[in-house]
Amino acid sequence: MSNTEDKAANPKSGHKVNRAAVVLQALMIPVLIAGGWFLRGMMPSAPAGGPPGGSMGGAGGPPTVVVASVRQGTAEEPQEFVGHVEAIQAVDLVPQVAGYLDAVHFEEGSPVEEGDLLFTIEQEPFRARLALSEAALQQAESSLPAAKADLNAAKANFDRADKYLKRLQSADERSVVQANLDAASADFLQAQARVEQAQAAVQQAEAAVQQAKANLQLARIDLAYTEIRAPIAGRIGEALVTKGNYVNPASGPLARIVQMDPIRVVFSVPDREHLALLRKTAKEGEAAVETRLLLPDGAVFPDQGRRDFDDNEMDPQTGTIAVRARFDNAAGLLIPKTYVTVLLTRKAATTVLLVPAESVMTDQQGGFVYVVDGENAVEQRRVVLGAEIEGNRVVERGLSADEQVIVRGIQKVRPGQTVQVAPDAGSKGA
Predict the structure, then answer these.
(1) How far is CA 384 from CA 37, 58, 76, 326, 389, in A?
(2) Exposure check for the chain: N or C terminus, fewer CB within 10 A?
(3) What is the pTM of this model?
(4) 404-422, pLDDT tens digit by residue?
């Protein structure tokens, strides 16, 4: 029997076959749609703003880079020494008189100027002593004129007794009664004793006046010591004693002041290097050696130092000598007892080309930099490199002075590309 005959003989069987095909077709449609979305997700998409291969600078613009100029500098690498910061002057404020602390006039950690009032000790007892000393001086000075008057009277009486005795002694013995001569001699001796007593009284009165003046001066000094003032300019630390405490010269310091500007850095130099340093400066002057510092965070201290003085003896155990350099420290970046790195550079007669170290790239062929020309086009330039000096690389060949090299944004550029140049605010090569 043929298939047509079978379908005619069994019409229900044909309906079943058509229904199965419809169901299969309905299941395949979602599968095909999902496959299409999957394949679309696997395909690379074009970058925003244009087709593949467009600009790297965002929406169609050139990338922005930071450049620095190739500059000239010394070729000698600086010598490094470990140094520590020390104050040129430091003062412990110790009370000179005893008493209760009446006031503290400063803010801890603040700068102070020479002569600033810092502490006050209770002044009433010292004012009272000053008043007593002034009264004692007045009394001593008032007794001195009376003592001098007594001395003058005693001298006048002595002169009369002396003249009378001499007249009797020069007279004829027959006209002089021995009793009168004896009485005159006694009067003379008595007048002489009174003169001596009066002179002693005057000397005692004068000594009392001098003693009263000295006591008055001491009272004034002690009263002045109740005001403790800054003997130097600098920065004051913690107030070690506060108001209401009893202080005296044996109770210890009240606070400490250290001079901050200028300030010194001391470091040890080996004997051979010190000899080379002495020969260099003797021949070319102190300016032939540049003294700089690296701070604990690695930053270069902005101001150059100047050699203050060298110690007068070598340390026989280490074979080094202590050298001190002075630095201006207006910003207060150098703090006493901080450890720093001292960089001594002996300036050479010849110069080399320097670029910031961050501008240098390397590959299997060696070092290279990206140079930006006058039309802001990028060129890859192969260079022969020398030593690294203070964050810069010496370029022996491949660059000229004042050419512009990219220091930031290197990862965004390629040779032949046009870039947008931004000014460099902090590059070491700028």
Answers:
(1) 53, 34, 17, 38, 15
(2) N
(3) 0.58
(4) 999 998 988 999 999 988 8
